[in-house]
GmrSD restriction endonucleases N-terminal domain-containing protein
Amino acid sequence: MEKQMDLFKEEEIEQQIIELKKDLNYDTRDYPIEFLVSLYENDSRIFAPDYQREELLWSILYKSRFIESIILDYPIPLIFLADTKEGGLEIIDGLQRISTLAEFLNNDFELEKLKKLTTLNGCSCLDLPASEIRRLKAKALRIIVLKDSTPNEVRKDLFDRLNTSSLLANPSEIRSGRESDNELMQLVKELKNNPQFIKTTNLSNSLINRKEDIELISRFFAYSNNLSSYRGHVANFIDKYFSTEGKNLTQDKKQFLRSEFLRTMDFVDTYFERGFQKEGRNQTPRVRFEALAIGINLALRENPKLSMSQEKARILLESESFKQWTTTDAANNRNKINSRINGVKEFLLTGKIDE
């Protein structure tokens, strides 16, 4: 009896593997670098979807080391593209490599800090010997192209797996790609362009490229609406909230979330001179954003006519309690998250703060 159950289990496993393999349909191509760059830069047939990281992410050092590896014939990781119904090729993994090649061939940067090809430090593409430029352009890169018959969820799953197999993508970047069809994520991507949010957070381009704006708004919604369920591990908490809430997001709930966010941004812009930014810094720490944004939102839920003054805002920000709430030490501890959010909320509603 036990042997029969084992055989049944084996058949079940084999059948599941066969079925899931059918979903991933691809072919392998070798594209010369010059051709690859032309499709990306001139033809625009190769393009990056909106959930991909921006081209500014790699520093000159990373770009230089990549070009050095190409010249020295070092193995380069596979580039993954996906054929679209319109005949284009969507970049799943490889944006930084493709854009770096395009920039180098256009002489947009000079190589620096190379430890092997030291004679190339300070050189652009045009400074290379003509024979090396020709070899560089003719070198072929191995490309995996998912056929247009590959289901969209399989493409997103591949993006997720490629980016979680290394330390290159942070949780917000991965979530942004994996949940690109999620109604709640689409709302977040809409709201990140809100002028008051942009002004009050003043995020740098590098942080925006790493989806920090999406991370902050994601935390706003997750903590505002599901704080009691938080038990630790922020990424898992937000992932679960988006997965659940995004499936059941009605238009009325979407409008409610949008209006709460906009009302909170307006409140901060009106009463907090520096928005969410820390004194002496032109950036917004996550703990500070959480304390103010979510505390204010919860207070406004209880008292929609709530108002204050810039002087009262300064009293809050300069208090010892607020400084303790917004230290980064054990910042994601459940008690600390509750303390900073509810501390701001109670101050706004009662005018009292524990010192």
